[in-house]
Amino acid sequence: MILFLSTFHLEPSVEVLLVPSEGSESQKLFCSGWGFNPQIKWLSESREIPSNSDITMGADGRVAVTSQVEITQTEWKTGNDFRCEVSDKSLNKKVNKSISLCSAKAKVVLYIKKHGVCFL
C-alpha cells in the first residue's frame, strides 16, 4: 500500500488589536499569527520592541502565536506606526500589519458610522 500525503499550502497570517487602556499610563497592543512555524516580532520605526509571546497548536496542525506589547501613552500618542510581523522560516514567508493612534481612531469612527453605535 502506498500512502500519499498531500502538502497543503499554509500561508502565515496576522491580526493586530488595540487593548482599551483608558486612564492607564501604558497602551497595550495584541498580535496573533498563524502558520507552520510562525515567529512574531514588533517594530516601531526601524527598532524592535520587546514582547511576550505564547505558542499553541491548533487541531488542524497549524501553530498559533500570540504576542502583547506595552508602550507608554506618550509614545502611542505620537501617531507612529507599530507593526507586528509574523514570519515563517519554514515557508520563507512574512506578513505584517500596522496599527497607530490614527488608524485605531479611524476604525472606531467607521464602526460607529456602519453600526450606529456611539461610545461615551
TrEMBL record:
* Annotated organism of origin: Lates calcarifer
Can you tell me where the transmembrane regions are? none
Q: Which UniProt keywords apply?
A: Immunoglobulin domain
Query: Where do the Ig-like domain residues begin and end?
Result: 12-100
- Provide an example Pfam family for this protein: C1-set
- Protein name (Swiss-Prot/TrEMBL): Ig-like domain-containing protein
